[in-house]
From TrEMBL:
It comes from the Bacteria. The keyword Phosphoprotein does not apply. This enzyme is involved in nucleotide metabolism: it produces dUMP, the immediate precursor of thymidine nucleotides and it decreases the intracellular concentration of dUTP so that uracil cannot be incorporated into DNA. This is Deoxyuridine 5'-triphosphate nucleotidohydrolase. It catalyses: dUTP + H2O = dUMP + diphosphate + H(+). One of its GO terms (molecular function) is dUTP diphosphatase activity. It comes from Marinactinospora rubrisoli. Its cofactor is Mg(2+). Pathway: Pyrimidine metabolism; dUMP biosynthesis; dUMP from dCTP (dUTP route): step 2/2. HAMAP family: dUTPase_bact (MF_00116). Residues 23-152 form the dUTPase-like domain.
């Protein structure tokens, strides 16, 4: 069966430039999921150091959406630069400046970020709100309570954590 492209036009997100000299977030290519966010600051991160960096923009997402701040793979692979809280969550009701908590994971080399550098990417997604319905017993499933490496695939897989918190290999 041929898959049909979804009929979705772009969602309009109101954005305010707190720092007028910086570019708006932008998609580098058609089809990209993330719009790049730039740094509003010059920062140097020592090995293992983190810093919360301004991006110069604030947004108002429509209800039912959230934006997620993701690391950029090139910065991660080349410099070990990631985000402490990846992905950061920007709530629909948040009107403050989007900030990015960068972390230099490299054990030896400092990372220098210059104002205007693209430091992270913002992925806007629909999100569901749920009603939590308390029950005594959950429905059975094939996975059950197995997780945390239970399916293997790594020589040093983490121990299995049971529903009661007990661990076993
Ligand atoms: O990487 C991030 C993560 C969050 N935020 C902003 C938007 C978000 O709506 C707000 C609160 O984020 P979160 O809910 O993750 O923080 P919290 O530590 O739970 O704080 P709060 O008690 O304010 O919800 O901070 C950012 O600018 N960048």
């Amino acid at each position: 069966m041929r898959s049909q492209p979804r009929d979705t036009g772009p969602v309009t997100v109101r954005i305010r430039r707190i720092d007028p000299d910086l570019p708006l977030p932008g998609y580098a290519h058609p089809g990209d999921a993330g719009a790049d966010l730039v740094s509003a600051e010059d920062v140097e991160l020592a090995p293992g150091e983190r810093a919360t960096v301004r991006t110069g923009v604030a947004i108002a997402l429509p209800d039912g959406y959230a934006a997620f701040v993701h690391p950029r793979s090139g910065l991660a692979a080349r410099h070990g630069l990631t985000l402490v809280n990846a992905p950061g969550t920007v709530d629909a009701g948040y009107r403050g400046e989007i900030r990015v908590t960068l972390l230099n994971t490299d054990p030896r080399t400092p990372v220098r970020v210059t104002r205007g550098d693209r430091i992270a990417q913002l992925v806007v997604q629909r999100v569901e709100r749920v009603t939590f319905h308390e029950v005594d017993t959950l429905p059975e499933s094939a996975r059950g309570a197995n997780g945390f490496g239970s399916t293997g695939g790594h020589a040093d897989a983490a121990p299995t954590v049971a529903a009661d918190g007990a661990t076993s290999r």
